Amino acid sequence: MQAVERKLGRIFQITIDEGEDFFEELDRFIKAENIRAGSVFVFGAMHTVDMISGFRSLEGYDIDRRCFKDRRELVGLGNISWPDSPPAALGDAAWDEPRPFVHIHMALSGGAGKNEEVLVGHLSGANVQKAFVEIYEFL
User: In the CATH scheme, what architecture does the domain 8-138 have?
Assistant: First the structure.
């Protein structure tokens, strides 16, 4: 086991508005506030959602990506880090320097009339209808 003691820093409540790109807005805010580590709590409604819903097999990084273009609700919990290179989940992204990476596990509602179709996975993109985000910064 590994453990790191952290102190609670600033706490932010953010609203991401209609039509905004979820990660673009969140990354911009994290950079502007220089939040180097923290926890992220998200709930809201999205016009579109991209997600990684799991692995197709146990062979390497064989993930299942899904895209939903109908309005859905989600709740998520994640963390903020600044890795030196892009995580595998970002595909062929290239970085010249460390950047914020927000890793969010989520539960996603089914589309209209599909309330029983709840999915869980990783949020990889979203166009927002309205989202609320709380960030708890760790020092």
Answer: 2-Layer Sandwich (3.30)
Task: Summarize pLDDT for 20-32 with one digit per residue, the tens.
Answer: 999 999 999 999 9
What does R_g of the chain's alpha carbons equal in angstroms? 15
User: How do 8-16 and 119-138 pair as beta strands?
Assistant: antiparallel
Please give the Cα distance from 18 to 10 (Å, whole number): 26
Residues 6+ apart with CB under 8 A from 33: 10, 12, 137
Tell me the C-alpha distance between 80 and 72, whole Å.
Answer: 24
Q: What is the DSSP string of the chain?
A: -------EEEEEEEEE-TT-BHHHHHHHHHHHHT--SEEEEEEEEEEEEEEEEEESSSSSS-EEEEEE-S-EEEEEEEEEE--SS--GGGTT---SS---EEEEEEEE---TT-TT--EEEEEEEEEEEEEEEEEEEE-
pTM of the model: 0.88
- Cα–Cα distance measured from residue 110 to residue 70, given in angstroms and rounded to the nearest whole number: 9
Domain segments of the chain: what residues? 8-138
- Taken as a whole, the chain contains a residue count of 139
